Automatic annotation (TrEMBL):
Keyword Secreted appears in the UniProt entry: no
Keyword Electron transport: no
Gene it is expressed from: nadA
Cellular localisation: Cytoplasm
EC number: 2.5.1.72
Manner of cofactor binding, per the entry note: Binds 1 [4Fe-4S] cluster per subunit.
Binding positions for [4Fe-4S] cluster per the UniProt entry: 86, 171, 259
Biological-process GO terms, alphabetical: 'de novo' NAD+ biosynthetic process from L-aspartate
Protein name per UniProt: Quinolinate synthase
Gene3D superfamilies: NadA-like
Family, as annotated: Belongs to the quinolinate synthase family. Type 2 subfamily.
Function recorded in the entry: Catalyzes the condensation of iminoaspartate with dihydroxyacetone phosphate to form quinolinate.
Species assigned in the record: Desulfuromonas acetoxidans (strain DSM 684 / 11070)
One GO cellular component term: cytosol
Amino acid sequence: MTEQQIKQEILKLAKEHDALILAHNYQRDEIQDIADVTGDSLALSIAASKTDKKVIVFCGVHFMAESAAVLAPDKIVLLPDQGAGCPMADMVTPEALQAMREEYPDAPVVAYVNTSAETKALSDICCTSANAVKVVNSLPDKEVILIPDRNLGNYIASHVDKTCHLWPGFCPVHDQLHLKQIQACREEHPDAVCLAHPECPPEVLEVVDHILSTGGMLEYVRNSSEKKFIIATERGILCQLRKDNPDKEFFFPEYEFICEDMKKITLEQLLTCLQTMQPQITVPEEISTAARRSLERMLAIPR
Ligand code: 13P
Ligand code: SF4
């Protein structure tokens, strides 16, 4: 089958199964091209919670498909490659989280959506990189536990007037970016606006112009009158950046900014997934009910 035939078959099957195809901004270009909705974690969670389609095909990583299953319990949720995970989400265990709760009994747990449904179920509220400061400020408490990303945690801590207890997790893709690499890129393109994801290390975030989620970066560039941008996040974002802004230029630091898990889903897999209606992602009811409470508390906060 040619790529064109595969795409046609995917669209035909999606229609037959009444399926909505969601793709994260880091997915392969051809997957983003064929999706009904592309976006950051927050936008995709909202799309999953609002759709009236029967099936959600989530082109992203496991925690994202789990969130869709939690928010839309009456839908069939498919993740074309079940092996697409997020190493950072795996850095929290229920036992260690319980121990941290006992250490700080007055601090509610704010879970970045890059966590398993089980972890969300043990947390008080979720956040994404697009709304983290708003979520933490919405809480009346003077102290909070922020899991699992220490870099996002540090960023939040510097923007809120609360004591923040940080979990020592990190994203292996963003955390390895060196200050030297971003500085070299800035020296090479001194007239470019520099945007970074909050999962980058604090010393990198200190020298950039704006710290944004992937959806926030896309919005910023669309609305900006500037023509050149340095982008410090996974390279998949280039697909939407180029589509939205054919007249603008994008530069990346000299760094392998690729999340292998985000690249696992191929067009062939997406087709097989729609042919077999597998692999389905389900979350046990007890976990789902508690995780939904944390996600819905987050979604209730005005954007
Ligand atoms: P966004 O919510 O900003 O898209 O980020 C998700 C993610 O996995 C970043 O590594
Ligand atoms: Fe997880 Fe990092 Fe990949 Fe995002 S980029 S899915 S945080 S490993």
